Amino acid sequence: MHWRARAPALHKMPTPASLVKYKYRRRLPHLQKADADLFITFCTGARQVPPEKARDLVLQHCLREGGISSFAGEGARATKSHMTQAGPRIHLHAIVVMPDHVHLLLRPLRDANSWPFPLVEILQCFKGTTAHRINKMLGTSGPVWEEESFDHVLRSDESLKQKCEYIRQNPVRAKLVRRPEEYRWLWTNPELEIVEGGTRTPTLN
């Protein structure tokens, strides 16, 4: 199977009517509430399992999107495409890059005009850039990710810490490791104070 990266689609600025709710143009409805925490899942195309170095790339890119680490060394394209002049577009709570899917827990931030950054643009940019870089790394072409993503707005009775713990335990449930801290492609925000002794940003080789 050949992978060919697709360029992210361009979208207009949201109107007041779309501030609370909007829909992707595809079959699944997606909601976005201003200043809400979101649980997001997206899968690799045909549930393929990318090599470890590709998963390293995905994790580091997400950390940079959240302002956790720098874009230094990735060139002007990455810097201009994924960081605004004012800073990151998301507040990242947690991420786990599983062999064939990714779980994210995040909150979209607001731009200089106080508009929430649209989730659809954040995800399209994330998928488009990581697909481009993975294809370049592997010498392949074609889609890397499924076009659809699944996002869920945390309800008032849902705990952010509990959802983060769900992400942490994903590699354990999949029997990839015995303890979450052993999994290389996991990061949780130290602000949540879930892990005994705290958490840390992974150091990738």
CATH superfamily: Transposase IS200-like
CATH topology assignment: Alpha-Beta Plaits
The radius of gyration over CA amounts to 16 Å
Order of helices and strands: EHHEEHEHE
Structural class: alpha+beta
Largest sheet geometry: 5 strands, antiparallel
CATH top level is Alpha Beta
The appropriate CATH architecture is 2-Layer Sandwich
Bulk shape: globular
Strand count: 5
Q: Give the overall average pLDDT.
A: 78
Q: Report the β-strand fraction as a percent range.
A: 5-15%
Number of spatially distinct domains? 1
In short:
With 205 residues, this protein is α+β, with helices and mostly antiparallel strands. Helices cover 27% and strands 14% of the residues. It is built from four helices and five strands.
Description:
- The protein is of the alpha+beta class.
- The protein has a single domain, classed as Alpha-Beta Plaits (2-Layer Sandwich), CATH 3.30.70.1290.
- Helix content is 27%, strand content 14%.
- It is built from four helices and five strands, in the order E-H-H-E-E-H-E-H-E.
- A five-stranded antiparallel beta sheet has the order 4-1-3-2-5, sandwiched between helices.
- Strand 2 (90-97) and strand 3 (101-108) form a beta hairpin.
- Helix 1 packs antiparallel against helix 3 (119-138).
- The longest helix has 20 residues, at 119-138.
